Amino acid sequence: MTGAESLVRTALDAGIEVCFANPGTTEMSLVTALDSVPGMRAVLGLFEGVCTGAADGYARMRGKPAMTLLHLGPGFANGLANLHNARRAHSPLVNVVGDQATWHLAADAPLTSDIAGLAAPMSRWVKANTSVQSLGADTAEAIRQSLEPPGGVATLTVPADCQWSDGGSVARVGSPSPRRAVAGATIDQVAAALRRRSSAAILLGGQALTGRGLNAAARVAAASGCRLLSETFSARIERGAGIPAVTRLPYFPEQAHEALAGVQTLILAGAKDPVSFFGYPGVRSRLAPEGCALELLAKVEDDVTSALEALGDALGAAKLTSIPRLEAPRYPTGPLTLATLGGAIAALQPEGAIIVDEAATSGGPYGSLAASAKPHSCLMLTGGAIGQGLPTAVGAAIACPDRRVIAFQADGSGMYTVQALWTMARESLDVTTVLCSNRAYRILQIEAARAGNVEPGPKLRGLTALEPPVLDWSALARGFGVPAVKVETADDLVKHLGRALSEHGPSLIEAVL
Ligand SMILES: Cc1ncc(C[n+]2csc(CCOP(=O)(O)OP(=O)(O)O)c2C)c(N)n1
Fold it and tell me: Which residues partner with 511 through β-bridges?
């Protein structure tokens, strides 16, 4: 068995089913092994950020890692921004990065670089494999490390000669540690705080945003009268009719302060003490009001859902009865605005849809309507590194082929990893992209205005406008093999979105705002 075959067999035995790849010469033995050892789906991404973002989306939906296969330092570096988002999402993910043959490293050939140095900031575990004999075991350890709660990015570099040489052996993946159970004393302490304080809120993150977590949190809220908030950017949140709704902590600090105003005790359940996305002059980093007491119920790596359930029991909470109604969908008509755009998606999204939300400033109204739409999962931009949406949609569609994916996508962000459209076409994925064409980096224009720059100069205007020339998204999508239309009214959006969602395969609707 070659080293490459030992790696693929070890991964297959551990349940890894997909490899998102953009290979080069130093990975060709691994590519060959993907044929000689059948069983793993190999998906080509035309930019490494597509591969890493897709692996992130896959992990968020399946709770287990996909593999990426990337080419040396430069190829790996192209995937870093989406690995940053994956790290913030606590997604289990295994990067396999080819390296020069062990004996060729010292020659310092042009593509040689410090891959471990590039990997460290975005990975929880990095190892350089150095022998064919240990490649199976190194692969198994990478997989185990990715699965250690709450999940994370593991990166293994594999020299070309360790891949092609004989002498490989399959290794078994050790069990990751279970999630830590929250101590009874902590549950009692938080229950006491909830009984004592009139104004408390629970900030939910990670596992707390699963259906089970949200139900448990809603019981706690019903019994104690506390408010429920979710972190601003969730890796995954279950939402819609029948699922308890929570208030998303707003992005801008003034609005976040408002959402938290009057909270005397903030309980953290799988979320961190919330901070402002950026520092602004005269604005504190922390968002909770001064003097607000913090209670840590569970860290993101803990068994957060069981802790919430135990908290409900400690408070004597009843079973959950009231759940949001499904409001009859009303199809918007008239001009295309953010409200009609959001209304069309909320009305038409099928049950069980996966919404990948990188709509940026175009997403606000939809966010408020989503709680009463059909139940769905929503994946958000966890690390703020834009260009996550389209790749994550690819990964989510491959993870869940029987669910419809809607990529709700801002135009500026979409351009970073636009090649993901080609993978959607190549793999015939059921992804409907609703592209919000506002032809600007609107958020940066808003930030400039907030900073007092109300009359932007030509450079600021030039660096935040995406026209001229206008990005012809319908033409771009068609160029990547994805059928596309351009719509300029709500009526046309409803018509084309309805049709796109009823057909198999990818499509893109360019919504001109
Ligand atoms: C990788 C990366 N590069 C640059 C930025 C800075 N940035 C944040 S938002 C943004 C523009 C977003 O524009 P768009 O996606 O069109 O959304 P809009 O603000 O127009 O709604 C940029 C360039 C970033 N966050 N991440």
Answer: 436, 487
* Residue 197 confidence (pLDDT): 72
Residue 324, pLDDT score: 64
319 confidence band (pLDDT: 50, 70, 90): confident
Name the helix (H) or strand (E) containing 408: strand 405-410
Q: What would the pLDDT profile of 428-483 be if each residue is shown by its tens digit?
A: 999 999 999 999 999 999 999 999 988 999 999 999 999 999 999 999 999 999 99
- Of all protein residues, the one whose alpha carbon is nearest to atom 9 of ligand 1 is 443
Cis peptide bond N-terminal to 159, omega within 30: no
Least confident of 224-228, 386-390, 407-411, 454-458: 454-458
Tokens describing residue 40 = 């793993």
Q: What are the angstrom distances between the C-alpha of 195 and each of 86, 228, 305?
A: 37, 16, 20
* Burial of 52 (C-beta count, 10 Å sphere; 0-12/13-18/19+): buried
Phi, psi of 259 (to 5 degrees): -65, -30
Ligand 1 center to residue 385 CA distance, Å?
8
**Probe ligand 1: pick from 48, 52, 413, max atoms within 8 Å of CB?**
413
- Report the phi/psi class of residue 223: left, alpha or beta, with left for phi > 0 and alpha for psi in -120 to 50: alpha
- Distance between first and last Cα of the chain: 57
For residue 441, which atom of ligand 1 is closest to its CA? Answer: 13
Q: What is the crossing angle of helices 28-36 and 3-13, to 10°?
A: 60
Side-chain half-sphere of 49: how many Cα atoms within 13 Å? 21
